[in-house]
Task: inverse folding
């Protein structure tokens, strides 16, 4: 194994391409159920609650409920797919399949293997976010231009939650322990960060706590067509900062497991 941390684009691509080729063999089983999840939420909650709620107030504007939750469902697709692949997928490759160790016997450095795994997890999240967005465009709940211009946000959100997943894979000692952050952090985020209802309806303290969680800025920024957030630049920088911090922490957790 190589201790050096030099990095090349070809090395990162090699790792990413290896994971993509493995994924292609079982893409139908691995791809469709996770992709359908946010779409099912969109259809179930959208069509189920719209007759009851009709229109809601968001940022001082009255909007149709289906139009309100559409960006939130894209964010849900991003968080679940990128985090799950980063946490479960990387944990399995690191501790059971020993894929990381095998790749490090090839002419690849730790930095290249780490970044390749990270980008692959982010790719899974971005694919699900885009597919969810395409379905919403076809149903008329999201504009095509809005989806196109939202691609950088989807990619940034995917990188953020993929880094959180990698950190989880590095910290947890058994695969069952990964359920702890999922139920204590990921599921609460998905419910209170403004995906299904405006955070302003929450109690003030809970609303403020939710605003600092990583999913909130992604949901708010994806709703830029409805209303540009007042602190959009701060929210964007917050996402970038969290991505950097979680990536650094994941690196610090995984590296010692391979080079003791």
Result:
């Amino acid at each position: 194994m190589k201790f050096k941390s030099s990095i090349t684009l070809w090395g990162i691509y090699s790792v990413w391409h290896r994971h993509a080729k493995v994924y292609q063999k079982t893409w139908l089983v691995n791809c469709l159920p996770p992709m359908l999840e946010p779409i099912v939420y969109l259809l179930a909650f959208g069509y189920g609650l719209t007759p009851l709620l009709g229109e809601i107030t968001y940022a001082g504007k009255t909007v149709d409920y289906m139009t309100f939750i559409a960006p939130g469902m894209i964010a849900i697709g991003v968080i679940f797919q990128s985090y799950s692949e980063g946490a479960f997928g990387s944990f399995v490759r690191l501790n059971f399949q020993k894929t990381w160790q095998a790749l490090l016997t090839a002419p690849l450095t730790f930095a290249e293997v780490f970044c390749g795994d990270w980008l692959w997890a982010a790719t899974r999240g971005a694919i699900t976010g885009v597919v969810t967005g395409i379905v919403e465009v076809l149903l008329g709940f999201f504009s095509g231009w809005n989806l196109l211009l939202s691609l950088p946000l989807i990619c940034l959100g995917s990188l953020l939650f993929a880094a959180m997943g990698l950190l989880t894979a590095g910290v947890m000692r058994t695969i069952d322990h990964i359920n702890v952050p999922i139920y204590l952090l990921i599921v609460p985020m998905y419910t209170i960060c403004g995906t299904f209802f405006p955070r302003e309806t929450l109690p003030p303290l809970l609303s403020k706590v939710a605003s600092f969680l990583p999913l909130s800025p992604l949901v708010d920024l994806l709703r830029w067509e409805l209303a540009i957030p007042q602190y959009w630049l701060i929210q964007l920088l917050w996402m970038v900062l969290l991505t950097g911090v979680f990536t650094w922490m994941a690196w610090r957790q995984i590296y010692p497991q391979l080079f003791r």
